[in-house]
Amino acid sequence: MDLGRIVRHLFTTIWSARRAFPRAALDAIEQAISLSERTHRGQIRFAVEHSLDLPDLVRGVTARDRAVEMFARLRVWDTEHNNGVLIYLLLADRDVEILADRGVHARVGPEGWEAICRQMEQAFRSGDFGGGVTRGIQAVSEHLERHYPSDGAQANELPNRPVVL
Predict the structure, then answer these.
(1) Long-range Cβ contacts of 68-73 (<8 Å, 24+ apart)
(2) What DSSP element (H or E) covers 39?
(3) Which single residue of 36, 57, 83, 140 has CA 20 to 30 Å from 113?
(4) 1 vs 3: CA distance, rounded Å
């Protein structure tokens, strides 16, 4: 059990998430997702969670574990072409996880997603949360454009509004 992590989570509140992602930043992220989805057939969701509850911390739940749970809860897996992508941020850990449905993941692979995560985390360390996410969305979109180019039909299967948990 990591006491430093527990303390960090206890002091990272919903207000921390709102400071990092004020309404204007959430609006910009939503717009970035909307614009990117015009260039490909993929579906992108962004979710930020301020911290984990104490029982989860004691059990050793990681950002990856939580991202898998959110992938299911937000139904990112439920797209017609198996091309959903979740960008998940656990704010207290400053840990980004990108989970992609099997269709996308098979084409991009874990190394492609990991590089994007590290770039976003670097932006977060300097306090650039909105910009880090927006650039992450652009990088994810480049992969989706390559593997799922737009066919002109715009079927928006998932909401574009960021989720603040």
Answers:
(1) 68/99, 70/163, 70/165, 71/99
(2) none
(3) 57
(4) 6
What is the CATH code of the structural domain delimited by 3-164?
3.10.310.50
The candidate with the shortest Cα–Cα distance to 119, out of 98, 102, 100, is: 98
- Of the candidates 70, 81, 74, which has an alpha carbon nearest to the alpha carbon of residue 106? 81
- Write down the H helix ranges in 74-161: 102-125, 129-147
Take residue 87 and report the two structure tokens written for it: 């960008």
Residue positions counted in the chain: 165
Structure tokens given for 99: 């989970």
Lowest mean pLDDT among 39-48, 94-103, 146-155: 146-155
Taking the CA atoms of 61, 78, 26 and 32 in sequence, report the sign of the dihedral they define: positive
pTM, two decimals, is 0.92
**b/e code 32-59 from CB counts within 10 Å (16+ = b):** bbeebbeebbbbbbbbbbbbbeeeebee
The two counts, helices (H) then strands (E), for the chain are 7, 4
Residue that has been written with the tokens 């992938």 in this structure = 71
- Indicate if the pLDDT at residue 107 is higher than 90: no
Dist CA 46 CA 27 (whole Å): 12
